[in-house]
Design brief:
Elements (H helix, E strand, L loop, with lengths): L4 H6 L7 E4 L3 E5 L7 E7 L11 H17 L7 E4 L3 H4 L8 E5 L9
Antiparallel strand pairs: 1-2, 2-3, 3-5, 4-5
The protein binds adenosine monophosphate.
C-alpha cells in the first residue's frame, strides 16, 4: 500500500529499529515507546485491521510476540499484548500491528 508507513518499514523504505523479520512478519521498536520495552509486530502484507487477518497470520504474530518477550527479558515479570481496532480503540495506523509492552506495571481495566 503506497502511503502506508508500516508497509514502508516492512520494505526497508523507511527507517526503523527492526529486531526480527521473516517472510511473513516484521518486528520493530515503537517510535514513541509507552513502556521500557515496546515492540510492534506486523504482517508484511498490508492488512488494515484484525478483522481482515487470517488465523494463520494472527497465530504467527502472537506466538512470535511471546518468543520476543522472552528474548527481550520481559517474560518473567509479565507483559501485555495489544491490538487496537479502529477509532474507539485508538488505532492510528491502519496496517495490523500487535503492541508488545513490558518492563513496568500496567493498569486494568485499560484507559
Ligand atoms: P496504534 O495507535 O495502535 O495504531 O499504534 C500505532 C503505533 O505506531 C504507535 O504506538 C506509534 O508510536 C507507532 N509508530 C508510528 N509511526 C512509527 C514509526 N515510523 N516507527 C515506529 N513506530 C511508529
Amino acid at each position: 500500500m503506497p502511503n502506508c508507513i508500516f508497509c514502508k518499514i516492512a520494505e526497508h523504505n523507511l527507517n526503523a529499529d527492526i529486531i526480527y523479520e521473516d517472510n511473513d512478519i516484521v518486528a520493530f521498536r515503537d517510535l514513541k515507546p509507552q513502556a521500557p520495552t515496546h515492540l510492534l509486530l506486523i504482517p508484511r502484507e498490508h492488512i488494515p485491521t484484525i478483522e481482515e487477518a487470517s488465523p494463520a497470520i494472527l497465530g504467527k504474530l502472537m506466538s512470535k510476540a511471546s518468543e520476543l518477550a522472552k528474548k527481550e527479558g520481559i517474560s518473567a515479570k509479565g507483559y501485555r499484548t495489544v491490538i487496537n481496532c479502529r477509532d474507539y480503540a485508538g488505532q492510528s495506523v491502519y496496517h495490523l500491528h500487535v503492541h508488545l509492552l513490558g518492563g513496568r506495571w500496567f493498569h486494568w481495566p485499560p484507559g
